[in-house]
Amino acid sequence: MPQGSNKIEFCSRCRARFTIKAGATPAVDENDGGLLCPTCASSSSPSVATPKARPVKRPRRKAQKAEIESQVPSLQDLCIQKIANCIEDVEGFGDISDLSMDKICRIISRNRSLNANTLQLFLDSRHSDLSLYDCTDINALGLQNIAQFCPSLRSLKLKFCGRIDDSVMDYYTSHLSQLTSLSLIGPILITEASYIKFFEAMGERFTRFELKHSARFSLKALKALCDNCPNLTHLRLGDCGQMDDEWMEPISNLTKLKSLRLRNPERDRVSTEKVVKLIQAVGSGLEELELKGFVEIEDPVLLDAIRPSCVRLERLNISGCEEFTTEAIQTLFKDWTVNRGLSYINLENCVMLKDEALMAITAHSATTLETLNIKGLDELTKDALLTITKCENLTMLDASWCRAMDDEVMEQLVKSASRLNKVVVWGDHRLTECCPSRKGMKIVGREGDFIDLRFM
């Protein structure tokens, strides 16, 4: 058994599962030499040794049930849920807040009830922002009605909008004269010419653009965006099949960028050299940088670009960057005095990173870090995980598949990080149901942690 860790065993007499704390000596059955749980050990003859350590109390199912029942939804949430469930019978929302309307839209999108008919409930000429979370069942005419009934829109977000085509895009170009922000997820039918026409019409007022899962968005369309919209502050491009080295140069001309998020280019299409030049050009103003899935880029991106250029950086996502080394991460954060600290760091599946990388991060951003993702960093040891306890303002931690995570580390996190409200621990088999928690903190993925609804 690894030193300093607990161990799960089964009683040789009653077959109950029990925990042996680190350093404790379990009782032994004289008959077969098996281990005994505290209950069976206490009922045996005095000749049977009893464990020295006091057994840890199991969390009771009733306590878990009470905690769930205490989370009673508000009357407003109940009303919103009722409206969403009967959305086909609703004729109008009346005077409700934008926040409540957005909640209803999220619910009916999850229920796959958003279509051309229910869409009319969300269209109003007074709206300046509109987000639709599943446009799968909305045809081209329904999507076109957005611009017809909401001509004053400044921000538009459409998810799963695979049915939007050039005619709809051209209609937006001519009718949404105040639009400054557009987000499209999955627009597979829009052609290069339509994108170029749209960007030329948007001009300098356009500040935010997000595009994901589009194989038709080309280098010419990107150049039209960068040439016609120089005031762009937020650019997010992900899973665009044509992304390559040539895309980096036009983006480097957007010197007013505050958020740059690039995701999942095809393998061998984007080189380290081009990414370094891009970050050196725009990094001084960046507050958020994402390079998710750039599996080929190497350490110079961290050392020659991010460290000297990104002085204002607050959020960094380098998940899936498999070539980044521990030494580079350590050098990036060590004595990085020009940066005041990051609030969000995502290192998911950066499989080469070891203890020194995490220690350097927690030393640099201990007072500012709020969200940390170290999923898949199997090389981390318990000593490195304990340094996370320095992050007093941490609110969310994903430590899935970090095998060194155990009850002791969780106990220290509960004590030190008072704002921590969610911990994800899939695959951390050393965590038991006896690991400490507190009210308001959610532990996701703990092995054996479930409630049998049949007995509630």
Automatic annotation (TrEMBL):
<dbReference type="GO" id="GO:0019005">
    <property type="term" value="C:SCF ubiquitin ligase complex"/>
</dbReference>
<dbReference type="Pfam" id="PF25372">
    <property type="entry name" value="DUF7885"/>
</dbReference>
<dbReference type="InterPro" id="IPR032675">
    <property type="entry name" value="LRR_dom_sf"/>
</dbReference>
<feature type="domain" description="F-box/LRR-repeat protein 15-like leucin rich repeat">
    <location>
        <begin position="176"/>
        <end position="370"/>
    </location>
</feature>
<feature type="region of interest" description="Disordered">
    <location>
        <begin position="41"/>
        <end position="66"/>
    </location>
</feature>
<dbReference type="GO" id="GO:0031146">
    <property type="term" value="P:SCF-dependent proteasomal ubiquitin-dependent protein catabolic process"/>
</dbReference>
<feature type="compositionally biased region" description="Basic residues">
    <location>
        <begin position="54"/>
        <end position="63"/>
    </location>
</feature>
<dbReference type="InterPro" id="IPR057207">
    <property type="entry name" value="FBXL15_LRR"/>
</dbReference>
<protein>
    <recommendedName>
        <fullName>F-box/LRR-repeat protein 15-like leucin rich repeat domain-containing protein</fullName>
    </recommendedName>
</protein>
<dbReference type="InterPro" id="IPR006553">
    <property type="entry name" value="Leu-rich_rpt_Cys-con_subtyp"/>
</dbReference>
